């Protein structure tokens, strides 16, 4: 087992010394799924040092079921307990979502790198939702209906000529 040394877009560390809230965990999972997937390690500090998973988060089946129940469409993750330097750490493997995924509270999130290079989960803006749907081929923006405009208004003269030549 390779232990990651730092957080990236696909690796997230969460401290569990004060029983990390499940609602925040679901948001972090959705952020990973809506980006490139990855692994969330619960019981690891931001600097990569393990501190252990809280006793309330040790039941991997309950964690997996909670993620399924609190994401829409349901995300199917794999949770395992790993031993890092004598500390038990909860590892949650998150697949890339093939559909846009949200929390059961209606939050769409994605991951990004901050200016200092550390990752974070942030809310998706409406245009990012469309970009993501296009990226995962859930919609085809080129097939979207344009407003009912006359051709001379909708297309420049150069575009009309290019279209005539193609036909």
Structure in words:
This protein is of the alpha+beta class and 167 residues long. It has one domain (11-141): Schlafen, AAA domain (Methyltransferase, Cobalt-precorrin-4 Transmethylase, Domain 2, 2-Layer Sandwich), CATH 3.30.950. 28% of the residues lie in helices and 23% in strands. The strands form three sheets. It has a four-stranded mixed beta sheet with strand order 1-2-5-4. Strands 3-6 form a two-stranded antiparallel sheet. A hairpin with a 5-residue loop joins strand 7 and strand 8 (119-123). The chain starts with 10 loop residues before the first strand and ends with a helix. 29% of the residues are buried.
SSE layout and pairing:
Elements (H helix, E strand, L loop, with lengths): L10 E4 L7 H12 L4 E5 L17 H10 L1 E2 L5 E7 L2 E8 L7 E2 L5 E5 L5 E5 L2 H10 L15 H4 L2 H10 L1
Parallel strand pairs: 1-2
Antiparallel strand pairs: 2-5, 3-6, 4-5, 7-8
Supply database-style keywords:
alpha+beta, about 170 residues, single chain, about 30% helix, Methyltransferase, Cobalt-precorrin-4 Transmethylase, Domain 2, 8 strands, two-stranded antiparallel ribbon, four-stranded mixed sheet
